[in-house]
């Protein structure tokens, strides 16, 4: 076995290509076995085993900068840079991060989690290198899916213009999470499949040069014909026109060819794009045959790839997907838009039912948002189905195109709250704070999946502008689902439990936490009210006034950034109404990035638990004897 002895990429340099191939197989086995227990991004990593080996064989990390787009395919890089003994802890609390992580290793030079940042990062590093007069290599590894992201196009435009020396490796496995989409994807597929394109670029260019130059009137025509021939025969002309030297396509599982191509790339002075063809899930049948499943897999049986995840209540996402079908039948104008997350957003059933009314735009959150604005302005009812974390990309489009136009766009914001194993790059805890202040927007969060269904109906019937509902990445509560859907009064909260001295104002899954805490405290003689603060905007003004009049001590409990979310909104409300003695305590996500682990651990870490809430209310009670209780507040 070679693998256990490899703990520094320098050791690769003395291996023969046969030994590298053996190592590739050992790494595959290692990943397939380890991930049965931890889960993780299996398919993407199995696809880049040879590519990563070839990179570390040819270049000197960390001196040469290797930048992995998204960073979900860096497991092999982690194995080769001294972290193989930590794979049992992958994506667990205090364990190895599922993405590239600077604090883990000097070889991790750029962190991500969101896609399409690698080319801008590479350009920045190449610029800094040149300005400092250094001569290291800069290499960005970007997938065909990540290349659909707007940032990648912006960077290509800049890199091709600047002509600095850097290498872009396009890892083309024809897959985003779902099968890749778009015109660029079609272009790459053409290069992949057209046998003409597989002719070596040099060979074609040599043959064209052999056509003698002619003077006179015919010259221009002949040059044009030569150009056309080149466009027909040479792959990657699009990239060449953008200022890159295109090399490939190269079989990404052939170590010798990869190494040769990298050596060739080293001789190019400006930017090079190496087009590498790989197979997602390579070497593990279940992953090769079910690409979608193998992208981010939970623990599984090694023989079949079958998930070991216990079957629970349907997730909020599934309830969303099913309800969307019901609403799609009700209103033919309803159309779903996803930026490359059709499966994760629960839209496959909808796409099956209404193939013409589901649009996957690729990793293009900004475009998706503006597209929805325009669809709405032309009388359609678009649902922008998006993960909270990825919606961060579309902030300007939400303000400028959707809300300013007061367009009837419905936002289905999934993964709102903690997400668990993906950790800090993916936490959905900022959207309330970055959307609540935008004029025209209505924002809701359901206490359970049944209420989600009513919110979806509310959104469809609301025709006064943009409206959002956000829901978590967890199983539903198992509550009975009402067959008949109804609209909720905009801005209405629900008082679920009475309680004059103390009340918890909670949203989403925190409502259940509040109910459980109230039940425990009741047994201890402390009566605590629970309010389902299901509208994050507008707030329920009359209920807030009632609570203040009753001099109720309130705790605002939310799995969202404490700064700027519901708690802040409540404080602003009382300040605006000059109610200065309202007793408001905040329990939200503190001013920290919360790392990977389970959602339970993330809630414990941030004090968003039944125990922490009980303790907080008991402390409030203990301290209350030292504070003067007023009854008049307005
Ligand atoms: C801005 C953003 N939107 C969506 C995602 C979700 N996402 C993660 S990986 C991925 C697919 C990337 O495909 P590709 O770059 O081809 O890598 P592969 O998994 O095929 O190796 C998507 C859509 C993301 N990480 N960032
Ligand atoms: C890398 C990435 O961004 C996605 O693959 C993400 O891990 C998917 O998350 P879900 O499992 O919540 O769909
Ligand atoms: Mg891909």
Automatic annotation (TrEMBL):
Q: Which InterPro entries match?
A: Dxylulose-5-P_synthase (IPR005477), THDP-binding (IPR029061), Transketo_C/PFOR_II (IPR009014), Transketolase-like_Pyr-bd (IPR005475), Transketolase_BS (IPR020826), Transketolase_C (IPR033248), Transketolase_CS (IPR049557)
- Which key words are in the record? Isoprene biosynthesis, Magnesium, Metal-binding, Thiamine biosynthesis, Thiamine pyrophosphate, Transferase
Q: Has the keyword Mitochondrion been applied to this entry? A: no
Q: Which Pfam families match?
A: DXP_synthase_N, Transket_pyr, Transketolase_C
Q: Where does Mg(2+) bind?
A: 144, 173
UniProt xrefs under CDD domains: TPP_DXS, TPP_PYR_DXS_TK_like
Q: What is its cofactor? A: thiamine diphosphate; Mg(2+)
Q: Which residues form the Transketolase-like pyrimidine-binding domain?
A: 314-479
User: So which domain of life are we looking at?
Assistant: Bacteria
Q: What catalytic reaction does the record list? A: D-glyceraldehyde 3-phosphate + pyruvate + H(+) = 1-deoxy-D-xylulose 5-phosphate + CO2
| Coiled-coil region | none
Binding of thiamine diphosphate: at which residues?
Answer: 72, 113-115, 145-146, 173, 284, 365
Pathway the protein contributes to: Metabolic intermediate biosynthesis; 1-deoxy-D-xylulose 5-phosphate biosynthesis; 1-deoxy-D-xylulose 5-phosphate from D-glyceraldehyde 3-phosphate and pyruvate: step 1/1
Q: What class of enzyme is it?
A: transferase
Record's subunit section: Homodimer.
Primary role: Catalyzes the acyloin condensation reaction between C atoms 2 and 3 of pyruvate and glyceraldehyde 3-phosphate to yield 1-deoxy-D-xylulose-5-phosphate (DXP).
Q: Spell out the family assignment given in the record's similarity comment.
A: Belongs to the transketolase family. DXPS subfamily.
The name on file for this protein is: 1-deoxy-D-xylulose-5-phosphate synthase
Q: Which organism is it from?
A: Paenibacillus borealis
